[in-house]
Design goal:
Two copies of one chain form a homodimer.
Chain A: H1 4-16, H2 20-28, H3 32-41, H4 44-53, H5 56-65, H6 68-75, H7 80-87, H8 93-101, H9 105-114, H10 118-128, H11 135-138, E1 144-147, H12 152-163, E2 172-175, E3 181-185, H13 187-192, H14 199-202, E4 210-211, H15 216-225, E5 230-234, E6 240-245, H16 246-264, H17 277-304, H18 306-311, H19 313-317, H20 319-343, H21 350-379, H22 384-414, H23 425-447
Parallel strand pairs in A: 1-2, 4-5
Antiparallel strand pairs in A: 2-3, 5-6
Chain lengths: 449, 449
C-alpha cells in the first residue's frame, strides 16, 4: 500500500532544496503518475533538476503523464538526441508515436534519425501514419507472439526472449507461419498445460480482433461488450500488427463522455476547470452567441405580435413557460437519441423511434397541459378560451419539440456530424423560438386577434 | 476474427426451428455477449430451449450479460437448486453476489443452501454485505496468491493448482504468512526469472491497493490514474480479500458518465431508448415539472410587472433573451465545476474558483452586452436609456448566474448530494426566474417605472 501523499510532500521539498539524495529516495517510493503530478507544478529549472535525477525509464513514464502543454514546453529544452536516446527509446511505440505527433515535423525527423533501434523507429513512423481516432492510432506494437507449431516449452523460451524488451505481458498471441493471427494463449493454459503439448492444441481461437482501420468508438464498444483487457489489431491481410490495451480505451471513453457532457452543457471544446480564462471563454462564447441570436430572433417574434400581447396580456405571461418547456422536451428527446446512438441500443427503424418519442412526450405534455389549464382557470381566473389556448399551445409545442429533438440528432448522425451537438443550446434555442412562434399562431386563430 | 453477425442469424433461426444440432453448432461460434444479445429478444419458451442447450459455463456468462429484467424473469422459471448447481457455481463470486442481490431474500437463502462448494458460498455471502458503491461490492475473490517464501518453481506449482478453478489469470499476488498483501509478481518476471529464485526477491512491492471500504469512484480514479488492469483489495488489517478488474470499473465509469449526461439533459433515472414508454415518461416528468413550476413562477413575476411592460413594450421583447442567457451561463458554469469535481482537477480554494468563473463570465457577458446594446441602438432604434437598461441587466444577470452556477454544485457536493443535478433543468429554471426578476428590478430603478 502506498502512502503517496507523504512521499509527494517529501519530493516537493527535496526538489526545492536541490537535495539530490532525498529527491532520489522520494522518487523510489512514488509511482510515475504521482511524480508527474508534482512535475506539472514545478518551474522550468526544477523540472530539469528532477528530470536529471530520474532514471530514463521513469522519466519517460513521467513525461507521458504530464499535461500536453508542460510536455511540449519541457521537450523544447532538450536536444533531439536526448529525446531520442533517453526518452523515446524507453517508451512503447504507441506512446512514443503520440508524443512525437505533438512535436514540429522537422524535430520529429531529427529524433527518428537519432534512434538506434531501427525496428522501434520503424514502428513509431508506421504508427504516426494512423489517425487518432482509428484502432491503428490507439494500438501499440509491443506484443508477445508465438507460432502455433511450437511446443509449450519452446513457446515459453520464445516468450522469455520477447518479454525482456517489454514492460509487462498480459496476453500471448498465437500466429501461423505468415504472421496471421490465429488466437490467444492464456496464462492459465500456459500454467496448466504439460510442456510437450503443442501451442496449436491449446490456444483459444474464439478471439475478438479489430482491423487497424476500425474506428476508436468501435474498439471501445468491443472492449466493453466482451470485457477485454487487450484486443489484437490485424491488417487487411489478417496479419497481427498490434494490440490495444484497455487503459488506452478507458482514456478514450472518458474523453468522449466528457465531450458529450460538455456539448450538452453548452461548452464547445475540451476544457477543464484548471484551464486559463481565455480558453474557457473561447470554449463558451459560441454557444452563448447562439443563445443570444436565438434571443434576438425571439424578441422579433414577440415584437411582431405586440398587438396580440397588448390585447390579451395574459398571453405574454406564459411566453417563458412555453419557451422553456419546448427547450426542455427537445433536450430530453435528443439526449435519449444521442445516447441510444452512442451505445448502439437504438433500433434501425427511425419511424418506430419517432412514434415512441412522440408518445412519451404526448403523455408528459397532456399531464402538464391539464395542470396549466387548472392553474389558469382556478388560480389565475383567466377566461376559458384564453386558458384553453395556452394549454393547447403547450401540448402542440411539446409534440413538435419532441419531433425536432428526435430527428435532428438522427439527421446529424446520418451526415457524420457528432449528434451530441443536438443536445446543446442549439436545440434548446431553436425550440424556444419555434415554441413562441407556434404559441402566437395558435393564439391568433383561437382568439381572433 | 469472428463473423458474429452470420452466426447470430443462424442461432436465431435454429432456436426458432427448435433445431438442436444447429443451435449447438451456432453457439460454439459465438461469444457469450453475442448469445446474450439474442437471448434478450427471445420469448420465454425459446429462452428455456436455448438455455438447456448451452453448457452451464456459457449459460452463466450469458445470464450475466442479459438485461436485469430479463434475468429476473428467467431465473423465476428455475428452481433454487438449478440456479445454485448450474449457474451460481459457474460464476465468479462477485458476479454471483451481484445476481443474488437481485433476487428476493428467501430465494437467496435457498440458493446458498444448495451450494455444495462452501468456500464459494461463504465468499458470495461475504460480498453481498458490501454496498454497490464500495470496493468490496465491486471486487471478486478469485485470485492467484503465492507466499513470498516460495521459490519460483514452487510458486508456479501453487499457481497451477489455484488457476484450475479460475476463468483467467492476469495478476499473481504475493502475500506473507498471515495473508498480508506485499506486492505483485508479474508474468514477465515469472517468465524471465530462474526457477530456484525466491518470490520475495523478484516481486514488485510498488503496488497500488485499495481498502474494501473505499468508494467506487476512488477505485475508478486510481485505475485510471495508474493505468491498471486489476487492483487488489485489502481489509483493515492489510490482508488481501479480493481484486477489482478494469472491466467492472469500466462499467461503473460508463454508468456514471451516462447518469451525469442524463441529469444535464433533464432525465432523472437511468433509462435508455429501448425502455418502455411508461419508464421513459416517469424519468422525464419530474424535470419537466420543475420547468413548469419555474414557468409559472416566471409568469407571476411578469404579471407583477405588467405596468412596466405596458409602459415600455421593448422591455418585454428581451425577457426570453435575458432568461435564456441566464440559464445558459448557469449550466456552463456548473458543468465545468461538476466535471472538475468528478475528475478531481478542481483546486481546494473555493474563492479562487469563484473569481475565475466570474471572470470568464464577465468577459463573455461584456461582449454579449455590447452586441445587444449596438443592436438595440442601431437596428431597433430604441432609446439610449432603455437600451442601456437591457444591456446592464444582461451583464448583471450573467454575473449572478455564474455565481449561482459555481456555488450550487460546490454546496451540493459538500452536503454529499450528486452535484451533477445542478447542471439539469433545476439550475436553468432557477436562473431563468432570477434573471427576469433582476431585469425588472434594474429596469424599475433606471427607468423610474
Amino acid at each position: 500500500m502506498i502512502t503517496e501523499t507523504d512521499f509527494s510532500a517529501l519530493l516537493r521539498q527535496a526538489v526545492e532544496e536541490r537535495n539530490g539524495p532525498a529527491t532520489a529516495e522520494a522518487v523510489t517510493h512514488l509511482h510515475a503518475a504521482d511524480i508527474a503530478h508534482i512535475f506539472n507544478d514545478l518551474d522550468d529549472d526544477s523540472q530539469l533538476y528532477l528530470y536529471e535525477i530520474l532514471s530514463n525509464e521513469t522519466a519517460a513514464e513521467v513525461l507521458l503523464d504530464i499535461d500536453a502543454d508542460e510536455r511540449r514546453n519541457f521537450l523544447n529544452t532538450l536536444s533531439a538526441k536526448e529525446i531520442a536516446e533517453d526518452i523515446i527509446i524507453e517508451m512503447d511505440s504507441d506512446d512514443a508515436a503520440d508524443i512525437m505527433a505533438e512535436l514540429p515535423e522537422n524535430r520529429q525527423d531529427q529524433i527518428i534519425a537519432h534512434l538506434d533501434d531501427e525496428e522501434h523507429a520503424r514502428s513509431i513512423v508506421d504508427l504516426m501514419r494512423y489517425g487518432d481516432d482509428v484502432a491503428g492510432g490507439l494500438m501499440g506494437t509491443e506484443m508477445v507472439t508465438v507460432n502455433q507449431n511450437l511446443s509449450i516449452i519452446s513457446a515459453v523460451k520464445e516468450m522469455r526472449k520477447q518479454a525482456e524488451e517489454m514492460d509487462e505481458v498480459y496476453s500471448i498471441y498465437v500466429v501461423d507461419d505468415s504472421n496471421k493471427l490465429l488466437g490467444i494463449l492464456s496464462l492459465k493454459k500456459l500454467l496448466t498445460t504439460s510442456s510437450s503439448t503443442k501451442v496449436s492444441e491449446v490456444y483459444n481461437s474464439k478471439l475478438v480482433s479489430v482491423r487497424d482501420t476500425s474506428s476508436a468508438s468501435e474498439v471501445a464498444q468491443l472492449i466493453q461488450k466482451y470485457d477485454l483487457y487487450e484486443v489484437p489489431v490485424v491488417d487487411a491481410r489478417g496479419e497481427l500488427v498490434g494490440k490495444i490495451t484497455v487503459d488506452d480505451v478507458l482514456d478514450y471513453i472518458t474523453e468522449e463522455a466528457e465531450k458529450d457532457y460538455q456539448l450538452a452543457s453548452g461548452i464547445s471544446s475540451d476544457v477543464d476547470a484548471s484551464d486559463n480564462i481565455f480558453s474557457l471563454t473561447k470554449a463558451r462564447l459560441p454557444w452563448l452567441f447562439i443563445g443570444m441570436v436565438g434571443g434576438l430572433v425571439g424578441s422579433r417574434v414577440l415584437q411582431s405580435n405586440e398587438e396580440s400581447l397588448q390585447a390579451i396580456p395574459a398571453l405574454m405571461f406564459f411566453v417563458p413557460l412555453i419557451a422553456a418547456t419546448a427547450g426542455n422536451i427537445g433536450v430530453q428527446a435528443s439526449a435519449i437519441i444521442v445516447q441510444g446512438l452512442a451505445s448502439n441500443t437504438l433500433g434501425k427503424d427511425v419511424f418506430k423511434t419517432l412514434v415512441k418519442e412522440v408518445s412519451v412526450s404526448a403523455a408528459s405534455g397532456l399531464i402538464l397541459a391539464l395542470i396549466i389549464l387548472g392553474f389558469n382557470l382556478l388560480i389565475n381566473h383567466n377566461e376559458l378560451l384564453v386558458s384553453a389556448t395556452i394549454s393547447i399551445s403547450l401540448l402542440t409545442v411539446i409534440l413538435i419539440a419532441a419531433v425536432i429533438g428526435t430527428l435532428v440528432p438522427l439527421i446529424l448522425k446520418r451526415n457524420n456530424i457528432d449528434p451530441a451537438i443536438a443536445t446543446g443550446p442549439f436545440i434548446t434555442t431553436s425550440n424556444d423560438i419555434m415554441g413562441v412562434f407556434i404559441y402566437f399562431t395558435i393564439a391568433k386563430v383561437m382568439l381572433h386577434i
